[in-house]
Specification:
Layout (H helix, E strand, L loop, with lengths): L10 E5 L2 H14 L3 E5 L3 E6 L2 E7 L18 E5 L3 H14 L3 E8 L8 E6 L5 E6 L29
Parallel strand pairs: 1-4, 5-8
Antiparallel strand pairs: 2-3, 3-4, 6-7, 7-8
């Protein structure tokens, strides 16, 4: 027996700089049509858009350790947008409204999946967030690797795609 999931219910992140990260995440979540469920000096939990984002402040004794994408743990996570225009709108919001380090603005990533289009940015603590749009069924659709009669799994992955 197998189980098909219904997405990710929530993502919880621990941040060092709560004074910069809490406003960043609350503004971003509200722009993504999420509502604040919990908010205090050390915690933010927003829900909606079929997910939840929980931010909590690191304990004082652990704040000396910075986020590093190259160590064990989260490298980045990716929100799925409904359209390319949504990716563009989120990119514009990120550029103008929040304290983000933009890794790349909207760009074609068809080397990852047919029609892949994404932005990539970091929160004030360096946690990477991607927003992408892949039209149709992506790898399960007409040009996808996992379509019926498709080439199947790739044995390569990297900056140049799969």
């Amino acid at each position: 027996m197998t189980v098909e999931l219904n997405g990710i219910a929530h993502i919880q992140m621990t941040v060092n700089d709560i004074d910069r990260c809490l406003p960043f995440w609350e503004k971003l979540c509200h722009f993504l049509e999420m509502k604040t469920l919990i908010k205090n000096d050390t915690t933010l939990y927003c829900i909606g858009s079929r997910t939840g984002i929980l931010i909590r402040e690191a304990p004082e004794a652990k704040k000396s350790v910075g986020f590093d994408q190259d160590t064990s743990g989260l490298h980045h996570f990716c929100f799925r947008a409904r359209t390319k225009e949504d990716v563009d709108a989120i990119s514009s919001f990120i550029e103008k409204e929040v304290d983000a380090n933009i890794i790349h603005g909207p760009e074609d990533g068809s080397h990852f999946a047919p029609g892949y289009y994404s932005i990539l940015f970091e929160d004030p603590d360096g946690i990477r967030v991607e927003v992408n749009h892949v039209p149709g069924k992506g790898h399960f659709g007409g040009e996808g690797r996992l379509r019926p009669e498709g080439p199947g799994p790739s044995d390569t992955y990297g900056e140049s795609g799969i």
